Amino acid sequence: MFGQLSNRESPRDLIVALDVHHSKSYHLGLGKNVSKSSLARANQDRDYHIFEEYAYYLVNEARQKRVSDIFKLEGNVYAFDSTTIDLCLSVFWWAKFRKKKGGIKVHTLYDVETQLPTFFISLKLLFTTLLQ
Description:
The chain is α+β, with helices and mostly antiparallel strands and 132 residues long. The protein has helices at 2-5, 11-20, 36-45, 49-63, 127-130, and strands at residues 78-87, 102-111, 116-124. Strands 1-2-3 form a three-stranded antiparallel sheet. The longest helix has 15 residues, at 49-63.
């Protein structure tokens, strides 16, 4: 999560960012400094559902803190976003959509009033989805 929220571009970039805060590693539940190989092993065995579940938890927490009705409209107003996330094929072999490219497509439905996602789904990126 830290890597995504801090816009890290690679595992090495993430490790460098975490090393800056090495004195806080213990309090964050990381124990010692995180190495690139231990991060790779952890990600290989990690189930993606934990991130999906956590994202929905954060959305529900934020919804409880929303401001009053800004637009004074009847019903909800939603915005739809679709984005592609490039993935490294050596790590995410299942995400292949071209000879040397990998990625997933994330579709997100935003509640305009709360400015929070209400629904999101990630799909394996296929060549045909790029043409749309």
